[in-house]
Amino acid sequence: VTENRTDLEDLHLYATPREQRFRRFASLEFEGQLYMTPYDFIQAVTNDEPKRAKKWRSLSKQELNQILMETPPVWKGSSKLFRNLNEKGVISYTEYLFLLCILTKPHAGFRIAFNMFDTDGNEMVDKKEFLVLQEIFRKKNEKRERKGDEEKRAMLRLQLYGYHTSTNSVLKTEGEDLVPRSYWDTLRRSTSQALFSDLAERADDITSSLSDTTLLVHFFGKKGKAELNFEDFYRFMDNLQTEVLEIEFLSYSNGMNTISEEDFAHILLRYTNVENTSSYLENMRCRIPEEKGITFDEFRSFFQFLNNLEDFTIAMQMYNFASRSIGQDEFKRAVYVATGVKLSPHLVNTVFKIFDVDRDDQLSYKEFIGIMKDRLNRGFRGYKPIQRYTTFKSCVRKELYSR
């Protein structure tokens, strides 16, 4: 254990919400830097709190080398990679941020991500190019750091990045309020500047000063000399999205091929700011009296659609601006036109039964989009337990009232 509980809580005061979450779920420490295991990462994106109290276990150099020696190459990746690695892996803070970016991006965005790393345009990404993201995320965090004790903030940087950072800005901007809203935007904005700044030169220093991680060995081999092509990069990102969705689905399916419509609603509303979730659940429960179930293919297709929410929002706005109501057919067509994803009639009907609270068979555009944007922020909002209303009277009363 690298520090006592008081120190842990003290440094938490100087951490951003993302940093706080990483520190809560991380379980390993090597030479002052904190790491997650693959198991920790899965827990961080599927649970509100760690299942067990975390004490950072110090790794020896020998233990770290053994973990990295057992890391499979990228061509052996699968949608069970993180589950198979379990506790035998190390993930740094910047890699944690990168993996979070992947979980919320459409497949079409994978090519954009790859091209952002491929700064020399040779259709391959090497270790040095990939490590540029270390500097990009670090600079974004410096702009967001909370004011306070410089010594404590320096300790926090050491925990998260493994080295002390200077206060000099690497990325030059003309204004103070030009920081993009998301880490994905930061990548898209900043990697294009990499060839015209000292970011790439800084990556040389980073490479020599930081320890290898499971992700670096997986992508670039044990010697760090391999290069990553787009097909392997795409497969990794797709596998990660699938793996997290499988874990969520299986946590509710209890070994069956489907989850209930109510469980589907629970998952959708889980990481949102909805105050009265019971009204959505009660509404759906009354209007879908016979359970048919949601398959994993339906479940996965819906979250693929959510990752395309920005494009879908534009399509929905066109209906909205034209003062057209959004029925199930219009919704299904807007999803397909904007995202290329085909949702099954049963899945669309279930979504409408959840969100059509006034029961006019039309979707509330603003409410639906707002709630789904919350859902995309998985892991960064507090989990609010959803109240369960199981009385038959409440369903009957609501049904009579709607008439």
Automatic annotation (TrEMBL):
Entry GO MF terms: calcium ion binding
Any single GO BP term: calcium import into the mitochondrion
Keyword annotations from UniProtKB, A to Z: Calcium, Disulfide bond, Membrane, Metal-binding, Mitochondrion, Mitochondrion inner membrane, Repeat, Transit peptide
Domain EF-hand, chain residue ranges per copy: 105-140, 343-378
One GO cellular component term: uniplex complex
Subcellular location, record wording: Mitochondrion inner membrane; Mitochondrion intermembrane space
Highest taxon in the source lineage: Eukaryota
InterPro entries (alphabetical): EF-hand-dom_pair, EF_Hand_1_Ca_BS, EF_hand_dom, MICU1/2/3
Name by which UniProt lists this protein: MICU3 protein
Source organism of the structure: Anseranas semipalmata (Magpie goose)
Gene of this entry: Micu3
